[in-house]
What does this fold into?
Amino acid sequence: MTEALDSVFKPKSVAIIGASRSPGKIGYEILRNIKEYGYKGKIYPVNPAADEILDIKCYHSVLDVPGTIDLAIISIPAKFVPPVIDQLAEKGTKAAVVISSGFSEVGNKELEEDLIRRARRAGIRIIGPNVFGVLYSPTRLNATFGPRDVRPGNIAFITQSGALGIALMGWTVTEKIGLSAVVSVGNKADIDDSDLLSWFRKDENTNVVLIYMEGIADGRKFMQEARLTTQFKPIIVLKAGKSKKGMVAASSHTGSMAGSDVVYSASFKQAGVLRAENLEQAFDWALAFSALKIPKGRRVVIVTNGGGVGVMATDSCEAAGLEVFDPPEDLRKEFKRYMPEFGSVKNPIDLTGMATHEEFRGALRTAIKHKAVDCIIALYCETAVSDPIKIADVVTEVFHTSNKPITVTMIGGENVSQAMALLKEHGVPVYPDTERAVSAMAALVRWAERRSHPTM
It folds into this structure.
């Protein structure tokens, strides 16, 4: 499996079977994404009616392609896919991504079984069918018909939904969230979430795996791979199909058997998998995990220039199981250096509205250095005496020199929006409200605990 997935993510050559000359067609958009995202390997468009597409020589059949095809992207009518697999066998292909729909998701199980039977006979592993493609940013491979300019990062995103996956790719670009990989798994007729976990577990470019899931065919296999993976990297799952009608919808969407939601939740917990309740939460957590700074415990210090947001964060921390502890005397003395006399060192550490970036720098560095502190939540409210951009610069500096996790909330106007964008550019987990910053920190703590004690 490793060799096959190496061919998916690190191919030396890619054939696009069903490449089109017409903008807007799937075969055209995939070819354009591969070319314009910067893939450096050999590109082989295959179309019996074209000699050239996007200034790239086109081949009339798979068998006309010179040399080996490491990865095949197939976007042709479903009934023609199985015979193409036989041709790919002659080219020494190890993996194929079947974009084409019209298989088990519409009840055509026999055609899907024929596809997989031929692929296994040829030693070819299949992603799909019924997918929008794959992306791996370290090799500049964007073999999808989704957004082109996906930001490189270290979050691997596996999705069973095509339209949702494409939309979220675009959203990550807008939100400046970097991805190492995107994999659309569709019907999961062959390669599934478990196989991908096994590969991403060893991938040095991936720190966290985020999965949108509608169902699992082999629960035992997934649990085994998840347990192994969560010892090294967090897995976040957004599992759809909680309700009875949701299960039926999932089954009709990709042919998945959604299964009992209670069983899924219990299984995820045993394997150390974090289950998110919605898309916003899933990506909030993934952003916090992307730096892979692991908390040693639940003891949190809240550093803020606003008493109100400090109180709200304290409430959220208590609800999430984080410990907003009373700082020891030596730590209080250090914090006092960075606030006026009427500031508070009781935790939340209230630097007051008079705080500038220098006070934030001092207080955050103090929290990082003290052994009583496991994690830090920094909260900033825009004031007339502070510059949000300078605050962002300081937080970025501290974040990248810290071995302790930090999540951030910034609240204010246009200048704060610019400061938040700057933080995101530098991989700092920043959120527009306190509850999300606390939720992300709590997820970090839960994973650290489950990694050591999987039944927690």
